Structures are given as structure tokens and as C-alpha cells.
């Protein structure tokens, strides 16, 4: 990923935070037939390995897991993103030497991917992944759903339709493009305009922008 120094993310907790917040990632592998990508909900174990380990599953019918990967796999996580209009820059009124751009947050994680079919590992995987997404619902006054709520024989049947994956992260890079290359007045103009947007991603990006 092309990352000018002003936009580079170097702090591992920040990189991990973006990965957790993203929810859905794209798993990309290079094969003899070309690149293959699958959108997947992945969860991170930050304490497994120097950069953490990613876990998830894909459909057994998905050919990606059967196709040998050439080199490391890549998991792409996208944070909020937003169009930035030149009209938001006060400097436009001074010299008009401005153009549109796009602000965004992204993390790419690389490593050797392992696929597995073991039923016990798959059950532990889907239990943990479900708990991660269901537990926050308790704060909304709803009862979280658990894998154990469904009949055991039904769950065992469902597990036969998926394949687990484990990706220990060997390399990680991140980018926060938040108008750091503009002066403080221009950044303030972008932040104010994004904050006023009715698009949630715009407002989320505005909250992340530096002063």
C-alpha cells in the first residue's frame, strides 16, 4: 500500500483497533489462476504472535480454500471513508490551487493462511465469533443469541458447510489519510463539513481528524 509518511499508521494498538472496528475484511490470495478474494468477518487475537492472528471461516463450496496460495495471503480492512470537496478549504478563496480528494482509513495484514475442517475447532471458532457480535446487543436490552441456543445436531450440520481459517500476521501496514497534508484552517474546514454530513462514515471520519 502506498503510504506517504504523513499518513502512515505505526502504532500496533491503533492498527488493531481499525481491524476490530471494520468487522468485514477481504481475504485475498494469489493463485496460479490469478487473484482470489472473499469478503469475510474476521476476528483478531492480538496476543497470538508478534502482530496478532486473524480467525474466520468461509463456505466449503468456496474454491478459494482449495486453491493453493502462492506466498502470503492478505486481509484488507477498511475504516470510514469520505469524499473531500475543494470548496471546504479556506485556501480555495486565496489561490484556487486545490483539487478534490478522498480521505480514508485502511489496514492491510499479511501472512500464511491455514484452512482447516476439524469440527471441534470450527465449533470453538463460530462460538467465539458469534459471542463477539452478539454480546454488545445486551447493552440494548436484548438477549444475545448463542450458538448453544440452536439444537446441537443442527449446528453440527451447519459446521459441515464451512471451513475455518487461521492467518498469523507476519506483516501489517496501515494508512490514515485525514488531511494531515493540509494546513490547520483547511483541516478545520474539512472536519466541519464532514461533521455536518448525514452520512455516518463522514461523521466518523471527522471525529478522527487531527486538529
Verbal overview:
- The protein is an alpha+beta fold and 211 residues long.
- It has 6 helices and 10 strands, in the order βαβββββαββααββαα.
- It has a 6-stranded antiparallel sheet with strand order 1-10-7-6-2-3.
- Helix 5 packs antiparallel against helix 6.
- 24% of the residues are buried.
- The mean pLDDT is 93.
Spell out the blueprint of helices and strands.
Layout: E1 8-9, H1 12-22, E2 24-31, E3 34-41, E4 43-45, E5 53-59, E6 73-84, H2 92-95, E7 101-111, E8 114-116, H3 119-134, H4 152-159, E9 162-168, E10 171-177, H5 184-195, H6 200-208
Helix pairs in contact: 5-6
Helix content: 25-40%
The oligomeric state of the chains shown is single chain
- Summarize the main sheet: 6 strands, antiparallel
Low-confidence stretches: none
Major sheet: order of its strands?
Answer: 1-10-7-6-2-3
Gyration radius over CA: 21 Å
The overall average pLDDT, rounded, is 93
Structural class computed from helices and strand pairing: alpha+beta
Distance between the termini: 25 Å
Shape: globular
Number of strands: 10
Helix and strand element order: EHEEEEEHEEHHEEHH
Instruction: Quote the beta fraction.
Output: 25-35%
Number of helices: 6
Amino acid at each position: 500500500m502506498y503510504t506517504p509518511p504523513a499518513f502512515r499508521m505505526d502504532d500496533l494498538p491503533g492498527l488493531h483497533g481499525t481491524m476490530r472496528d471494520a468487522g468485514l475484511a477481504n481475504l485475498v490470495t494469489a493463485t496460479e489462476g490469478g487473484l482470489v478474494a472473499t469478503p469475510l468477518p474476521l476476528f483478531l487475537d492480538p496476543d497470538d504472535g508478534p502482530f496478532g492472528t486473524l480467525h474466520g471461516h468461509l463456505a466449503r463450496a468456496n474454491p478459494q480454500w482449495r486453491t493453493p496460495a502462492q506466498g502470503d495471503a492478505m486481509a484488507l480492512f477498511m475504516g470510514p471513508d469520505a469524499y473531500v470537496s475543494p470548496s471546504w478549504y479556506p485556501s480555495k478563496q486565496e489561490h484556487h490551487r486545490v483539487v478534490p480528494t478522498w480521505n480514508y482509513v485502511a489496514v492491510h495484514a499479511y501472512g500464511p493462511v491455514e484452512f482447516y475442517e476439524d469440527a471441534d475447532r470450527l465449533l470453538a471458532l463460530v462460538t467465539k465469533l458469534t459471542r463477539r457480535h452478539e454480546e454488545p446487543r445486551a447493552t440494548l436490552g436484548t438477549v444475545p443469541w448463542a450458538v448453544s441456543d440452536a439444537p446441537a445436531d443442527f449446528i453440527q450440520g451447519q459446521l459441515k458447510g464451512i471451513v475455518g481459517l487461521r492467518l498469523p500476521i507476519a506483516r501489517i501496514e496501515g494508512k490514515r489519510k485525514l488531511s494531515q497534508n493540509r494546513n490547520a484552517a483547511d483541516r478545520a474546514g474539512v472536519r466541519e463539513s464532514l461533521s455536518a454530513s448525514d452520512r455516518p462514515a463522514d461523521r466518523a471520519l471527522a471525529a478522527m481528524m487531527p486538529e
